[in-house]
Every structure is written in structure tokens, then in C-alpha cells.
Amino acid sequence: MSTLAPPPAEKDATASGAAASSLADRRVLVVEDDPTVAEVAASYLSAAGFIVDQAADGFAALKQVALTPPDLIVLDRMLPGIDGVEVCRRIRSHSAVPIILLTALGGQDDRILGLEAGADDYLAKPFSPRELVLRVQSILRRSVAEFDAEKPLAFGEFTLDPSAHVATHRGETLMLTAREFDLLAFFLKRPNQVFSRDDLLRAVWGWTHGDVSTVTVHVRRLREKIEIDAAHPVILSTVWGVGYRLEGEVRAHASA
């Protein structure tokens, strides 16, 4: 049985006001086989102004993504048919849509497995529906608003356009997830500075506490997309015992 609280009254769920209304046209797909959890999550998200679709298993989720591409997916780890990790891998083969993984398995290895499959974030069950809404708002708000006024950046053969949310390497667009894009943008704006995993967890994820392995996995995933040899990184280096640093110089893009 679910321990989630009942859906909030409309006035309570929309307390975030103007911030939430700016995301009102965003579509969220909730993939959850527990009807109660799915109903509560969908109710809270709908009350916060999102358009919500639902799927009860992995195959239905993949079909729904192809039929009506969402702006974000809330994906249960344990699903009938194919599990959430495999669903995540299949979606990542062709899409960078943000994915929040819901997991009832509390082990670090399980969380890492989901992150390595391409999840941007995760919530452990039982979770607060209000926290879920805040996580969804945080990820989508960064993708639609935070970078609007910022100028494009370039690093060697890499360019990043924050307002368009596009990063390229040698003119080819990189398929970065929401968190990977945020992480790359953070480093590009702060070259030659060392940041610990705790620093990055606070600055990029907005978490005051959490599992720092989340950062480790995302750095590894980002390296696989921006380095020539991810096993021997020369762009995003490790400062042993301290953290990570973007090496070299960053200049304003010529078109800025």
C-alpha cells in the first residue's frame, strides 16, 4: 500500500505562483505501475499546472514517448514488462528528455545503475509528492529560463548556447541530458577552478545534501561525450582528493 498523502487542494498545490505558471504548458509523463502512486503524483503535478500523461509499464511508456514526446519523464525503477533502467536506456538512445527515476531500492549501486542509464535525477520511495513537484519544476525551469540572457561560450572546439540549450563539438550537436548540459555550462563559466562533488551537488543540482555519487556518474557521462578518451580526460580533469576542474581558456563565442 502507498503511504503517499492525498492530493492537495488546488490553492495549496499552486502556491509557487508565477514560477509554476511559466511552466504550465510543459508535458510530464508519469510511468508508474502502482495506481495509487501514479494517481497522487499525477494529481500533484496537474495541480501545479503541468500537462500530465500516464503509462503503467515500460512498453506503454516507450509508445507514449514516441506518440506524444514529453518535456520530462517521471519513471519508476520497477516496472512490469521491461524495467525503468532499460526504458531509460532506450529513451536515451534517441532523446535527451529529462528523466527523474523513482526507486524503492535504497542501495547506492541501484541508484548508480539508474544514473548510468541516463537518469538526470532520482527520488527514493516513499517520497513526498511536493518534493517531486519541486524537482520537476527545478529541472524544467533551468531548461526554459535560467540561461535566457546568457551569451554563448566556446572552449576549444566546443560551443555552448545557453539560451538555445544547445552544445556542439566540431560543429556537431552533443546529445546532453538536462543535468549534463547544466554541468558543462557550470564548468565553462568557471574555467581553471576546482569544485568538489559537494560544491557541484549544491550548485548544479540545488541539493544541500545528497549522494555525491550522483555527481561522479554525471561527470563520467559528460566525459564520454566531450573527451576524445574519457578514460584519460584532458578537458574535465580530476584533482585528486579535491574535485574536478575544466582545463584551459574559455572565450566568448564569435556570434555573441
From TrEMBL:
All residue ranges annotated as the OmpR/PhoB-type domain in the record: 150-248
Pfam families xrefs? Response_reg (PF00072), Trans_reg_C (PF00486)
Residues found modified as 4-aspartylphosphate: 76
Per its UniProt record, what PROSITE patterns does this chain match?
OMPR_PHOB, RESPONSE_REGULATORY
Question: What SUPFAM superfamilies does the annotation carry?
Answer: C-terminal effector domain of the bipartite response regulators (SSF46894), CheY-like (SSF52172)
Single GO term (MF): transcription cis-regulatory region binding
Q: Does the keyword Transmembrane apply?
A: no
Transcription regulation among keywords: yes
UniProt DNA-binding residue ranges: 150-248
Location of the Response regulatory domain: 27-140
InterPro entries in the cross-refs: CheY-like_superfamily, OmpR/PhoB-type_DNA-bd, Sig_transdc_resp-reg_C-effctor, Sig_transdc_resp-reg_receiver, WalR-like, WH-like_DNA-bd_sf
Its domain of life reads: Bacteria
Give the GO terms filed under biological process for this record. Answer: regulation of DNA-templated transcription
Key words, A-Z: DNA-binding, Phosphoprotein, Transcription, Transcription regulation, Two-component regulatory system
Name this protein carries in UniProt = DNA-binding response regulator
From what organism does this protein derive? Subtercola lobariae
